[in-house]
Amino acid sequence: MNKRIQQNVMIKGTKDGLTLHLDDSCSFSELLKELESKLSANYQFQENDSGIAVKVHTGNRYLLENQKNGIRELISQKKKLVVDEIISNVVTKEEAKQWKDEHQMTTIAKVIRSGQILEVVGDLLLIGDVNPGGTIIASGNIFVMGALRGIAQAGHNGNRESFISASVMKPSHIRIADEIMKGPDKYIDDGHAMECAFIGENGQIVVEKTQVFKNHRPNFNRLEGGL
Asked: Which residues 6+ apart lie within 8 Å of 177 measured at CB?
């Protein structure tokens, strides 16, 4: 009976490029050796060939930064192959804490008065008003259960998918990631109940009724029961 040879590297072609599945039980040196051998045997390119994106899945193996660089360097030696992403099932405690902080919801009940600044990591649920001259900032989304008449900055870490929702949307300024929208000098009416500001398809901030927002972010369900 022939003994089955363990394959430490599985390569699959996709419509987006190549996906490499690397075994997480062998030694790292064995892994690199087999990866180099399989890439050399199977992938030869001509100068006019287009570049191919490579996604690397390492399973339950946690890679140090120098090991990731070793994989990137080995793959980049094969012309036309470019590492797009290295994915692992394992994260460090620091990475887990950062993810938790960025996805947490901070709930605060107060009025933000002129000159006051409230800043949080993750999403902000403010139960109260933001008066003219007051500022609220969040790295995630902002929900104001009250009147927003001051300044609101969502996606402070650069997340352009973030949004700002308010029961009464009358801000002096809104900022989402690096996009800024200035409010009118004077609001005439009381506005609609619960409006959302987000970056639209044109790359600029738009304000819509909350029910319309669901069409732009159909998978969003951060709050129980949705928006």
From this structure: 155, 158, 159, 160, 162, 199
The residue-averaged pLDDT of 203-225 equals 70
pLDDT at 90: 77
Is 147 in a helix, a strand, or coil?
strand
Q: Which two tokens stand for residue 64?
A: 């140090």
β-strands 17-22, 52-57: how paired?
parallel
The Cα 129–Cα 133 span in angstroms is 12
Q: Model confidence over 74-111: pLDDT tens digits?
A: 888 876 788 888 888 877 677 777 767 767 889 999 99
Strand residues in the chain grouped as ranges (E): 9-14, 17-22, 52-57, 81-87, 105-109, 117-120, 123-127, 135-138, 142-148, 151-154, 163-169, 173-176, 179-182, 195-199, 205-209
Token readout for 41 is: 């045997």
